[in-house]
Amino acid sequence: MLTVALPKGRIAKETLEIFSKIFGDSFVFDDRKLILQTDKFKFLLVRNQDVATYVYHQAADIGVVGLDTLEEQGLDIIRLLDLRKGVCKVAIGMKKGEKLDLSRPQITVATKMVNITKRYFAERAIAAKIIKLYGSIELAPLVGLADMIVDIVETGTTMKQNGLEVVEEIMESSTYLIANKNSFFEKKSEVLDIYEKIEHIVKNG
Amino acid sequence: MIFEHEIPDNSKLYFLSSAKQKRKIERIAAEILYDNGFEEIVTPLFSYHQHQSILDDRELIRVNDTMNHNMTLRADSTIDVVRIIDKRLGRNTSHKKWFYIQPVFKYPSTEQYQVGAEFIGQSSLPSVMESAVEIMNALGLNPLVQISNMQIPVILTKMFDLTLDDFRHINIEKFLALDIAWLKKLVYLQNIDELDAILDIVPGDIKIELVKMKDLCSGLTCNNVTLSPLYYSKMLYYDELYFRMIDKNHLFASGGRYKNNGLISVGYAIYTDTLIQTLTKD
Which terminus of chain A has a lower count of CB atoms within 10 Å, N or C? Predict the structure, then answer.
């Protein structure tokens, strides 16, 4: 029996569709239920940012989560497989027409992803003051709270609608199948069996 | 503001049943280790040499001596035990089997109680590992014993475009993408009875290392064993056979063969805090 942590929303739906394709059963959470128990799996519906935490503490053996979230949290888990879903970019956005000037003595960056941002600027020896925000990041440069933002970009529409544009891409992200390190060794055949089946679907559709 | 009841993050406080459990674990471990021919050593809390064994030196808690030389609090016992026996006590004793019961400290305020055993100048891991199995048995625990060999990832990095980080993070997708039948079998290898079929198809230098894993398994009295030839330890000094004792998400013990200043030794550490947590819960 494997416990699988899924992030609420589209990714959970798409992942359950993959399981349906593999096993031929319907995998659907009952309304507002957070646990879906089947013969072989127990699925948990959690917040996107909590998936890796559930897996790291072995409340779930495996999970599905975005690479950006994994990079931000830096937890010691196994990245099993790139599912090639939820493809997006982590990018720097500035007011339209503004240029990224990294020679300034200090820049102010607003972001949800403090660790990715800190690492990016530290690697380039740039003194960046990072302001942690929890949402509506695009607002920060417009009201003078920050010179730029670091945020997830899928199509770029949200930035565009708020008068911002992407000036630099930091990393590409997509969803990954992850596993707890001890679960991997304790339940290797089960984990690798589901790995193979999911990989087949990802590659062949 | 610090309240009167506060203690630093990740420091340890045991009382009543948990303190009793700690004493019981240490007593049982000491008895078994004495019976197996080990003698006890207590090493200084302060050390000049910890950077040799800690991968990330930011984990060290630094202080200075009277001459302003850098010292750190002990973050790992093994290297200090081996160095002190080899370099300082050489004239006082020729004994090679030592155990310690003492905590280690990591920045900023993490404390970890450990029981460790080292057999200095010995290269055979079963000679010490069996005492760890005995301690687990005496405590009524039956963890999964994971056997690995650090030489295998090192050899594979020389054969393919792989890094040790790929092994630290167990990058299965990258290993399988190489599309090599025997490498795939190493990824899937779990039980000792699957090993013989693999020995016939792997390159010679990998075979030598796999045979060492096989010999280690056959010398052990426990039956709850899994083989993980592609696992790479985060510790700097383990360089060959290596084992972890795990139970659910807990690491009960780990150890292996290591080299210090050219001297090959074997040893392990038991993580007392994890055992206390597990045994107190049960």
Answer: C
pTM: 0.89
C-alpha A118/C-alpha A116 separation (Å) is 6
Domains and CATH numbers, chain A: 2-86+174-204 (3.40.190.10), 88-172 (3.40.190.10)
CA-based nearest residue to B142, from B279, B4, B280, B2? B279
Angstrom distance (rounded) from CA A88 to CA A93: 14
Model ipTM? 0.84
Containing B259, the helix (H) or strand (E) segment is strand B250-260
Mutate to test the interface with A, among B165, B173, B274 (most CBs of A within 10 A): B173
Chain A residues with CB-CB distance to B173 below 8 A: 79-82
Nearest neighbour of A189 by CB, restricted to B146, B190, B250: B190
Run of H or E residues at B120: strand B110-120
Residue range B127-186, pLDDT digits in tens = 899 999 999 999 999 999 999 999 999 999 999 999 998 998 888 999 999 999 999 999
- State the Cα–Cα distance between residues B256 and B237, nearest whole angstrom: 9
